């Protein structure tokens, strides 16, 4: 009788299975990083005065370049909704404050283009966006006040005022812009800050004309309130409406209307008191 010797079967290694499990476990983390980057980019752009359609397009392009081609974004002036597919829950960011800083919008667009060209990793892109978010405004308050004062004086000349009204308009414009910044710090209601600033401009214009420092108070007032006029907001509202973003366009248009109404109300109160 012959005995057949069987070699023991080689042990089955489960390393590939373990690596696949670790790969699947790491995938949601990577997805969450990409989602965080897209939301951060959209937040910076929307807070800095970017148009709604530009924010949505930038977020979708960044997500596609980072490996999430099926993303969906919905942007309104007060919030951003972002989702990558049907299995992941949608993410939301609330936008409470908005200003005008087109330099940050340009920098985020530059980061988006570098991501699309494959020049940035996920970590590098996230660090750059955090640096842009922490970056202070490009101009100090002193420079902003000087620009507002000088533009007010120039607008007064452009609207038909004389050179004798140049200095009063410069004073009124700078004081009015300072009042907007100051009152907005005290009361976080933009409408109230703009109404109060226009009231200060009107009172100061009447006072300067009364003491003989100026001649045409209407020209001084018109030129001085121009730095408060929501020109960028009106432009973005029209562009969003033309791009089909009706909710954002109408809401920005309503905000621009309220700002113009606040400016007009402040000046009207001055005329009703002093005329």
TrEMBL record:
Residues 1-26 are annotated as: Disordered. The chain crosses the membrane at residues 166-183, 195-215, 221-242, 254-274. It is a multi-pass membrane protein. Residues 37-273 form the Threonine/serine exporter-like N-terminal domain. Residues 1-16 have a biased composition (Basic and acidic residues). The keyword Membrane applies. It is found in: Cell membrane. Keywords: Cell membrane, Membrane, Transmembrane, Transmembrane helix. PANTHER family: SUCCINATE TRANSPORTER SUBUNIT YJJP-RELATED, UPF0442 PROTEIN YJJB-RELATED. Belongs to the ThrE exporter (TC 2.A.79) family. This is Membrane protein. The lineage of its organism: Bacteria, Bacillati, Bacillota, Bacilli, Bacillales.
